[in-house]
Amino acid sequence: SFKPYVYATAMEHGFTPNSIISGGPISWGSWSPHNYNGGSAGNVTLIMAMAKSINTVPVRLAKDHLGIGPIKAMAEAMGVESPIEAHKTMVLGTSSMTVMDQATGYSVFADNGFVGSRHGISQLVTRTGEVVYDFAKDAPPPHRVLSEQALKSMNTMLAAVPVMGTARRAQLPNIVVAGKTGTTQSYRDAWFVGFTGNYTAAVWMGNDDFTPTKNMTGGSLPAMVWQRLMVYAHQNIDLKPIPGIDKPFVDEEIAAKAEEAQKKSDDQAAADAAAERPPVLSSRTTQTLRDMTTLFQSAPVLSTPQLPETLSAL
């Protein structure tokens, strides 16, 4: 769930959701991060890398194009107050962060690229009615930290995560959702941080004694908790659009196209995996079995006496 800060930095450095980066194996000194499924992603667009939460892509962005400094500065500018280590592993979220940090950072995406709305006290009034503090008047005004173009690109990418990525369980009925899952080392932490045009919320789940969970990922219970909370929060309110996304309602045509693209991607992955497997049967045996299958599917049911004759003909 730290990756959006990396991608936001990339968007400000000229990348787009359709920019293609290698998701293959990478080593950065003695560190060789792996993808969740252990495989190689090949060349992928950044929007797909975000949706599928591919680890090697943000690492390659940081190593070859961005550097650690700008990413750290971006997270801090977006409101993260916990100390962020300027270490290469920070790219995948190894620095400790609070739930409020994540809610604040992601609220920038929901607030049109501005930071500065985080507060817990709206107003302080004395017994006599004197207002001694009013957030709307006394707090510094929000200021922009993401350009309009970077914001639009980021929200387009984050909105793809619940549609064709790791956060399908966070989808809301007829409302566009954007956000990112997170799962830390050894399944000790699981996150979902997301937003609509109306609300931003962060969910963290884990054990308070630092022991691993039972393989819990951000796309499971955290996304489900977030979804249940947001279904309740969005009852009987006027829906607002996510900045950079024109409609607050799910576009069925876009959703259908995303599903079709995902199916093609899955089919291609299966074909690639099949191509990499060594053959078990010879080509002649394989062809014979195919002929038998075709014959039995097209011909009427064969009686037992006919089988030897048919097999002999093959």
Structure description:
The chain has a single domain, classed as Beta-lactamase, CATH 3.40.710. 42% of the residues lie in helices and 12% in strands. It is built from eleven helices and nine strands. Helix 1 packs parallel to helix 3, helix 1 packs across helix 4 and helix 1 runs antiparallel to helix 7. The model has no long low-confidence stretch (mean pLDDT 85).
What are the SSEs and their pairings?
Layout: H1 3-12, E1 20-22, E2 43-45, H2 46-52, H3 56-66, H4 68-77, H5 99-110, E3 114-115, E4 123-125, E5 131-134, H6 135-138, E6 143-144, H7 148-164, E7 178-183, E8 189-195, E9 200-206, H8 221-233, H9 252-276, H10 283-298, H11 306-313
Antiparallel strand pairs: 1-2, 3-6, 4-5, 7-8, 8-9
Order of helices and strands: HEEHHHHEEEHEHEEEHHHH
**Strand sequence of the main sheet, in spatial order?**
7-8-9
Rg estimate, integer Å: 25 Å
CATH architecture: 3-Layer(aba) Sandwich
Number of distinct helices: 11
CATH level-3 fold name: Beta-lactamase
Low-confidence stretches: none
- Mean pLDDT comes to 85
Category from helices, strands and their pairing? alpha+beta
Distance between the termini: 58 Å
Biggest sheet statistics: 3 strands, antiparallel
CATH superfamily: DD-peptidase/beta-lactamase superfamily
